[in-house]
Design goal:
alpha+beta, Alpha-Beta Plaits, 3 domains, six-stranded antiparallel sheet, four-stranded antiparallel sheet, 30% helix, globular, binds 2-acetamido-2-deoxy-beta-D-glucopyranose, Nucleotide-bd_a/b_plait_sf, RNA-binding
Length: 318
Amino acid sequence: MAATSFVAASLLRRAALGFALSHPLKNNKLSYQSNLISFPLTPRLTSSGLCHLAQAVKGDVADLLKDVGDKTVFEEVKRTLEMARRASSRREVLHTNFLTPPVMKESMLALTKLADLKAVSQGGYPQAERCRISVGHPDVLTSDPDIIAALSITGNFGFQPCSHGDFLGAILGTGIAREKVGDVILQGEKGAQVIIVPELIDFLMTSLDKVGNVPVSLTKIPLISIDYEPPSTKSFRTIEASARIDAIASAGFKISRSKLVDLIRNGDVRLNWTPVTKNGATLKTGDIVSVRGKGRLKIGEINTTRKGKFAIELIRYL
Ligand SMILES: *[C@@H]1O[C@H](CO)[C@@H](O)[C@H](O)[C@H]1NC(C)=O
């Protein structure tokens, strides 16, 4: 029974994969994040009749980024916005390399504020962490660009298990830059699957012959064959007097409030991948809290009770 439902879920997941990248699914079984944002064509016309996103973006970049606290994230998001400006003024579709989750989140957020621009993010499978963003005018960005490829790395890892870091280290050891590589998905004794930019497939296939001490062989695989485990989650409800991060995260991870405050002080707590520096942050639906060594927590629905408390749905990634 369990096996059957697993197969069914996996078929569903694969069937969904084909369109999951462009169609937000709100079903709880297939709760993929929406990976597509698109904006109505607002008539931002100049006297010549041309759409001027370039003008709209120029000078506003600093404004769009005023909430991005982290310096490196800020620089990378800025680069994405500048790319969007170029894409729009040349009426082309341009793509980023693979972005980290915080950069990707802030970039998509900032891009939604721009008129006449469509942005698509893809990482090869619905829950991909590292994604590439493509931007362009909605007239030219009409389908998901073909800018993601996948390889299967196989070898006999039964006696020498290799970690995520071992695979990544071996790939980067060939000279490939980190931002050209997406997620690495471990496949137990068989090896791993790696997401990469298409133009480096041949190079990696000829350059990588070992991971750790294990000889490997590489094959290109279609994205539909990417075999990831949908994360195992547990959701529950809690009622708290405040929606502050210390209150909610201590309930979610079942640790004391004071321990959580210590973890924050040590820099071990992240909110939407950005380290939390002070305790007062208030959480909202969709926020992701991660605590080093304890995993992740997603904030679901928040209701206020008649007594002015917060009833919060928490989804714990195990
Ligand atoms: C919030 O309220 C709705 C409607 O009453 C209810 O269905 C839902 O379960 C509540 N969620 C939480 C987390 O209490």
